[in-house]
Specification:
- By secondary structure, the chain is of the alpha/beta class.
- It contains 15 helices and 21 strands.
- Strands 3-2-4-5-10-9-8-6-7 form a nine-stranded mixed β-sheet, sandwiched between helices.
- It is globular and about 75 Å long.
Length: 532
């Protein structure tokens, strides 16, 4: 049976009044600025510098932050700030290139000098200035520039200087306009968060009200209003995004929600039980489980190419989910089921060009690639949130910590952590090795210190080893612990030697087919986090 076609599709996510707009001039840190504003308990959105002033002001922003960027303001074709934006009365903070663009638009002077400033730099600030009140007069900041502001715009007070630049910050509090040469959003700027909060609270007069409780309250109300008496379906993966999305919808409409969990046999040890027992017990959500393990193994038989494995898993998952969803439609009545929950996050939207005209960075599985004849209206309750905010909501909603703090896990699961053909035997080997890693990380209290910890089985590789009195010919496994904030860039995590030693000893002792454990010490870039 197929699910009945429906006549409309929409993306339901709550609207937020009076956002802080982060105007992106091509900065690698635009998302980080938005996140730091959120950490100050103020809602923010990223918009492109190409957005017309009228559209920005139509959003009724509480404040605007002009980001950094790679251009030089005096070059032909460089993006500029419309003076009308700066004269609109909306508080504005310029950062790095945004500082230059503000100075240029208001009659200041920007030029290139022979002395660049990159990395940690000491600046002298005016403690009586709005941005620096209550802070030391000398601060370490993170610079990244060759261009400097030689003269502040008329009416502005210079409030900071560095050894190489006389003007590294200025402000005009009566017009609510401020600027800094450095990057307050990065952790290397010691008082960076304080500077941002001074702008938000004192410079722009914003009350910090963006909290997990307020997000839940707004989101639940929006879902309840839109869904009405209809039924909702959600696909649970076992990850934090779908778990929190489903919990929010359940908070809004209760038993009108049915969650579908497809066990494709590519999960890690204990994850099915975690969903069926712990998650359901915590939320009371109605859950339908489809055991599709044999189906996926059959489809993956003989396939080693990673892209082919991804496509097979994606195809089979959609087919399996549709079968389970069709059963829900029959149970609930074909006229009742109208909405599908999806755990899209804000970086997914920005990176997929789904925001306000944002450039496409990548096609993401949560945004792009949806069927053109999608049968449901979409509910995307996490569409405006970053991953750390999703975790905060999960804790606020009382979800099990094991799910809230679960590391990101690829949709194709262990299929792409086995380099080679996926078989039942190889899945068992990898599950056992992965379980040991997770146990030892938990025992050492390091679970939350890493962003992700893939364990990879080199299934088509064997190496000679010695165990007991005999030679072995076993598989190597690769440990890939990484630290990151958003997975766009990552560094390999420096695990304590004693933890590495315990992991290696246990794997080679307890997983008979493995006789070698190696550590991947590659950052991203050049290497990706996953091996396939």
């Amino acid at each position: 049976m197929t699910i009945p076609e429906m006549t409309r599709r929409q993306e339901l996510a709550p609207e937020h009044a009076a956002p802080v707009l982060v105007v992106d001039f091509g900065a690698q840190y635009a998302q980080l600025i938005a996140r730091r504003v959120r950490e100050a308990r103020v809602y923010s959105e990223i918009v492109p510098h190409s957005m017309p002033v009228e559209e920005m002001l139509a959003k009724q922003p509480a404040a605007i932050i002009l980001s950094g960027g790679p251009a030089s303001i005096y070059e032909e074709g460089a993006p500029r700030v419309d003076r009308a934006l700066l004269e609109s009365g909306v508080p504005v903070l310029g950062v790095c290139y945004g500082f230059h663009a503000m100075a240029d638009a208001l009659g200041g002077t920007v030029a290139r000098t022979d002395t660049a400033e990159f990395g940690r730099t000491e600046v002298t600030v005016s403690p009586e200035a709005c941005l620096f009140a209550g802070q030391p007069g000398t601060q370490l900041v993170w610079m990244s520039h060759r261009d400097v502001v030689l003269a502040a715009p008329p009416g502005f007070e210079v409030t900071a200087a560095s050894p190489s630049a006389r003007v590294t910050a200025f402000e005009r509090p009566d017009a609510h306009l401020f600027g800094v040469q450095w990057h307050p959003e990065v952790v290397h700027t010691v008082y960076g968060q304080e500077v941002l909060e001074r702008f938000l609270y004192a410079g722009a007069g914003i009350e910090p009200s963006w909290t997990p409780a307020s997000i839940i309250r707004e989101t639940v109300a929006a879902i309840r209003d839109e869904v009405g008496d209809h039924h909702v379906i959600c696909g649970l993966s076992g990850g934090v995004d779908s778990a929190v999305a489903a919990a929010l919808v359940h908070e809004a409409v209760g038993d009108q929600l049915t969650c579908v969990f497809v066990d494709h046999g590519l999960l890690r040890e204990g994850e099915r039980e975690q969903v069926e027992q712990d998650y359901v017990a915590a939320t009371g959500i109605r859950l339908k489980t489809l055991d599709a393990r044999a189906r996926f193994l059959e489809a993956l038989a003989g396939v080693s190419d990673p892209e082919a494995k991804r496509k097979i898993v994606g195809r089979e998952f959609i087919a399996a989910f549709e079968e389970a969803a069709a059963e829900v439609v029959v149970e609930q009545g074909s006229d009742s089921v109208e909405f599908l929950v999806q755990g899209t996050l804000y970086p997914d939207v920005v990176e997929s060009g789904g925001g306000s005209g944002t450039a496409v960075i990548k096609s993401h599985h949560n945004v792009g690639g949806l069927p053109a004849d999608l049968r449901f209206a979409l509910i995307e309750p996490l569409r405006s949130l970053f991953k750390d905010e999703v975790r905060q909501l999960g804790l606020e909603l009382g979800l099990p910590e094991a799910i809230v703090w679960r590391h990101p896990f690829p949709g194709p699961g262990l299929a792409i952590r086995i380099l080679g053909e996926v078989t039942a035997e190889r899945l068992t080997i990898l599950r056992r090795a992965d379980a040991i890693v997770r146990e030892e990380m938990a025992s050492a209290g390091l679970e939350r210190s890493v962003w992700q910890f893939p364990v990879i089985l080199l299934a088509d590789v064997r190496s000679v080893g010695v165990q007991g009195d005999g030679r072995t010919y076993g598989h190597p496994v690769v440990l890939r612990p990484v630290s990151s904030e958003d997975a766009m860039t990552a560094d390999w995590y420096r695990l304590p030697e004693e933890v590495l030693a315990r992991i290696s000893t246990r794997i080679t002792n307890e997983v008979e087919e493995v006789n070698r454990v190696v550590l991947d010490v590659t950052s991203k870039p050049p290497g990706s986090i996953e091996w396939e």
